[in-house]
Amino acid sequence: VGRMKFLKGWFGEKKASLSMWFSLDSDDYRRFHNIIIPGSNGTAQIDHVLISQFGIFIVETKNKMGWIYGSADQATWTQTL
Fold first, then answer.
1. Among 55, 51, 22, 52, residue whose Cα is nearest residue 35
2. pTM of the entire structure?
3. Using alpha carbons only, what angle is made at residue 41 by residues 37 and 42, rounded to the nearest 5 degrees?
4. d(CA 42, CA 62)
C-alpha cells in the first residue's frame, strides 16, 4: 500500500510539472520543482515554485479523487469523493 501511495503522489507531481511546462510561457515564468528548504527542525519539501512578474507562486500537488475544500487559515481541509 505504501509503495502504491508513493507512486500515485509521484505521478501527480510529474503530471502537474508537465502541465506547467506546456501551459506557462517560459519567457514569463521560471519553474522550479521539488525544492528542499533546510530549517531548524529538519527540512521542508515544496512541490513547485513559479516566479514571474505577477508574483511568486508556491504549489503543493495532491493526486486525489474528488474535491478538496479549505482555506489558508484552516488547520485541516476536507476531501469529498
1. 51
2. 0.58
3. 45
4. 22
